[in-house]
Specification:
The protein is an all-alpha fold. It has helices at 45-79, 82-95, 105-118, 122-152, 154-157, 166-195, 200-222, 227-252, 265-290, 292-299, 304-324, 328-338, 341-378, 380-400, 404-412, 420-441, 444-469, 477-486, 493-497, 499-502, 512-530, 533-560. The longest helix has 38 residues, at 341-378. The protein starts with 44 loop residues before the first helix and ends with a helix.
Amino acid sequence: MLNNLSEEQVRTRPDEDWGQVETIELPVLPLSAVVEDPTVPTETPGAAGTFTRNSILSVGRLLISTLVALVLPAFLTHHLPVKTYSAWILILQMSAYVGYLDFGIQTGISKYVAEFAARGDHRGASQRASAGLLLMLCTSSAGVVLTLILAWRVPELFREMPAALYRDVRLSLVFVGVSLSIGMLCSICSAVFLGLQRYGVPMLLSLVNRFLFTGAVVAAVFFHSSLAVMGAIVAGVNLATGGLQIVAWRRLAVHIHLSLRDLDRGLVRQMLQYCSALAIWTVGMLCVSGLDVTIVGRYDFGQTAFYSIATGPTNFMISIIGAALAPLLPTASAESVHRGPVAMGEMLSRVTRYSAILLVLSALPLLVGGYWLLRLWVGPTYAAGAIGYLRILVLANVIRNLCLPYAGMLLATESQKVAIAGASAEAIVNVGASVYLARHIGAIGVAYGTLLGAFVSVGMHFALSMHYTYPKLSISRARLFLNGMLRPSVIALPTAVLSPLWWSSRAPAFSIPLWLLWGASTVLLAWFGALSLEERSRVLRSARLGVHTFELALSRSLSRR
């Protein structure tokens, strides 16, 4: 939920004309319908079209990169011993801690560049981007120091790890962590593109990084390289893609200057103030989703590989939602300038419902068919070991991400400070419960800790945060819960009824007719229960338009031949 915010939520597409009405009619639910009452002003059609196109691009990038990423665990689980694979997972997990030092700086750069570029004030955008450059230089340096400390403490952190792996783990951690620290500094160039709504550039660079990373690791394992060599190769990929970001900025966005000369101290303080609340969110995000595998590695090292496999499909599920909502921040930021709190509240309600529908539809196949998906992906041994963790993590992440659109709207309206209490409460409960339960019942306790934290998070924001944001997002909490969250949950009724047949460590006891009945009833509930008649009509019109557009493009292509 709020702690789940990431750079995905500020990624947008190349700059488009905000007044192009015809771009709304795409085969997804457009944001032009966020206000049901015709007396309430809606957001501009161009903004809805931009959001829709960027959502499609964002999800498309995610799908492509995920297909590539699926290759890696399937390959490594069949070519590395379980303990070696567990060590590699911990290397990546600890290296990723560097990314949490971003503290929302990329988000701040994207937001301010978007606002000032929209006004035609490139100087103002450049000044704020340069302020972000100074802050990112500091956090990147801290990332290098953090990496060296973690590498030094590896034997004390993971006492159950075989001692023969310590040297390679330390070297690999230094290579990957330092390269990620440098890459984080380079990422401000991508943040500039995101602010300019030129989403295609960072999307392409992200895909290049994913392809190179996967190919490099597969090649290293194929030639029986050590963990240290694997880490060095990954570091090379990270540095190369960081350099590509700089080249892209110099060629395509150099009008947004990045320089440490003549920095305005007031603007640096402004950026610090904006990022201060995001820094707390980032710490909360670390506690919620960044420490789980490490806690498992410390208290139940033998289950690390299985737990990490379970996090893969779960992360994919929430990444779909994050990618779909990626353009929400710049869209809502622009709309908040022209629209009142009632219109913004209606927007929040509608986007929350669409997000919840996607969440439920993404989660149900993992709950019911998770064993078969894992078995097809990584084999029966890992499937049997990971399915219990997977189901608990899926439930936890569905609950905590129900408020993800609310988090994006807080950023857009600069109200993120009111959510500090909720983010802090979730982080404390999550880490405390995970450590306590892991010491007593093993790795499954970490999954239960995540579930407990999710309930606390949503409860805190409904009880506290939304009270203070009502002047900017004017919608009752009861209506948001009933219409935005409870209504989409009807989709899960068939799954709940059949839970005795699929909640086990083995394959679901489903016959083919029962599978068909479950799928058909779920789809029908999603169509008739979660969507209104107007929305169903809009989806059908958009689908027909999409088919017509495809037919025209195909006929033109054939006529040219």
